[in-house]
Amino acid sequence: FAGLPVRDAERVVVLWGTDAAGSFDHLPIGPSALPEAAAALRGVATQVAAIDYNGAWPWTFRGADGAPLRLRGTLASGRFFETLGVRPVLGRALGPSDDVVGAPRVLVLSHAAWRARFGGRPDVIRRALVNVQHGAPYTVVGVMPPGLDLPRGVEFWTATSPTAAVNGSLENSPWAVDVVARLRPGASPEGARQALTTFYATLAARGKVPYA
After folding, report:
1. Contact 110, 155 (CB under 8 A)
2. Which helix (H) or strand (E) holds 51?
3. Which pTM does this prediction carry?
4. Rounded to an integer, what distance in angstroms lies between the CA atom of residue 25 and that of residue 159?
């Protein structure tokens, strides 16, 4: 997180768990497992969030004029920006109430995308962009500060649950996320990763896998 506008960046980590066999060391989790993962990390982290395992990838929208607009976007949990300690320069950030199955779909723009794609206009807030793939509208609610490039190349973030849900539930979602944590004073990234791997083992003992 060095060089990013993140509060106390040395305490923020992206955690990768390991499967029970030790054969896969970047194992993501399904969105439905995030609350349990957060509870398992409570001893080493003050805040826990998640970001799309696939990074930033192209989405196609249709604006008010009907013209296609391609933006590289990613899914983020409702506490992502809170965990990073980053405040928007315009509008608001994503929050927990956005990250609920069935909630209105909203997105937050990167500063670079706001300037390059929307001319830095303040009236971008509340603008609706319709996703071409599934016809759902996404409303712009905020703009992040310059330099927040996480994941690399991102132009917008949208809350996970409204997009990732399948038939009104996250249980069978095909999406996967990485855990983002703000470490407690004295906690190490290695200790946090071990706590996540232990959580994965707990799921396996119950006949579940993290990414499912």
Report:
1. yes
2. strand 45-52
3. 0.93
4. 26
Phi–psi pair at 156, nearest 5 degrees: -160, 155
Mention every residue, 6+ apart, whose C-beta is less than 8 A from residue 193: 15, 16, 17, 18
- Give the span between the Cα atoms of 13 and 125, in whole angstroms: 30
In residues, how long is the chain? 212
Q: Which helix (H) or strand (E) holds 46?
A: strand 45-52
**pLDDT per residue over 53-68, tens digit each?**
999 999 999 977 788 9
Question: What is the rounded average pLDDT for all residues in the chain?
Answer: 91
Sign of CA dihedral 113, 117, 119, 124: negative
In the DSSP assignment, the letter for residue 10 is G
β-strand pairing of 68-76 with 156-159: parallel
pLDDT tens digits, one per residue of 117-135: 999 999 999 999 999 988 9
For tokens 């928007």, name the residue: 88
Which helix (H) or strand (E) is 188 found in, with range? none
Please, are residues 80 and 94 in contact by the beta-carbon 8 Å criterion?
A: yes
33: phi > 0 → left, psi -120 to 50 → alpha, else beta; which? Answer: alpha
Residues 17, 192: contact at Cβ < 8 Å? no
85, 144 Cβ separation under 8 angstroms:
no
> Which pair of structure tokens corresponds to residue 41?
């990390």
Residue 104 and residue 30: Cα distance in Å, rounded?
21
- Please, what is the end-to-end C-alpha distance for the chain in angstroms? 29
